Amino acid sequence: MNNTIETILSHRSIRKFTDRAIDPKQLETIIQAGLAASSSSLLQVVSIIRVTDKSKRALLAEYAGNQAYVESAAEFLVFCIDYQRHAAINPKVKADFTELTLIGAVDSGIMAQNCLLAAESMGLGGVYIGGLRNNAQHVDELLSLPQNTAILFGLCLGEPDQSPELKPRLPAHIVLHENSYEPLNLGDIEQYDETMKAYYSSRGSNQKQTSWSQQVTGKLSGESRPHMLSYLNKKGLAKR
């Protein structure tokens, strides 16, 4: 096993940071690692907004559901779908196809993961903030996003001030299919549920008595940010 694999397999979401700033050269390397990520057809449809304004950080923390680490992390990056630069090059660009929105979301995820892995390889930590989409329009206006762009998620980065336990993932034999989709073995899920129950009850903070199945089916039984479609449509995205 090499250092890269060790970094990937030791990933944990960090939500508590020290006051130490990230060295500018480190941040530059993190961004360059993101820029090196794969890009569909080299469209390069991602923009990153580095938020350094303290008042904006405070508002973003509030918009994300009062997640204090958005404000306290050394760095906070917001990843956006961006077809505005393409429209500026040629006004005839048609950015409203759903496929292009999917490309923007996929490429943003790939780029952000490159940034986080680079940061973790330096001993830093981070956590993704999908909660920005709770108030997508407010975040959009705060960051002055033009048409043909849309916010997706944020990324906190900094020096970890905690060492949380590794969270167990679904075993590979549940996730990996060969040649065609294979039916789910509920017995395998029951075993994973027991693993997660043990994890939740024994971890150092935020202990709870629940299984993975109960948690995710509860989350998926209600609405999930139904305002997002109208937000994207308003920005000229995912219309057809």
Automatic annotation (TrEMBL):
<comment type="similarity">
    <text>Belongs to the flavin oxidoreductase frp family.</text>
</comment>
<dbReference type="GO" id="GO:0016491">
    <property type="term" value="F:oxidoreductase activity"/>
</dbReference>
<keyword id="KW-0560">Oxidoreductase</keyword>
<dbReference type="InterPro" id="IPR000415">
    <property type="entry name" value="Nitroreductase-like"/>
</dbReference>
<dbReference type="InterPro" id="IPR029479">
    <property type="entry name" value="Nitroreductase"/>
</dbReference>
<keyword id="KW-0285">Flavoprotein</keyword>
<protein>
    <submittedName>
        <fullName>Oxygen-insensitive NADPH nitroreductase</fullName>
    </submittedName>
</protein>
<dbReference type="Pfam" id="PF00881">
    <property type="entry name" value="Nitroreductase"/>
</dbReference>
<feature type="domain" description="Nitroreductase">
    <location>
        <begin position="8"/>
        <end position="158"/>
    </location>
</feature>
<dbReference type="InterPro" id="IPR016446">
    <property type="entry name" value="Flavin_OxRdtase_Frp"/>
</dbReference>
<keyword id="KW-0288">FMN</keyword>
<keyword id="KW-0521">NADP</keyword>
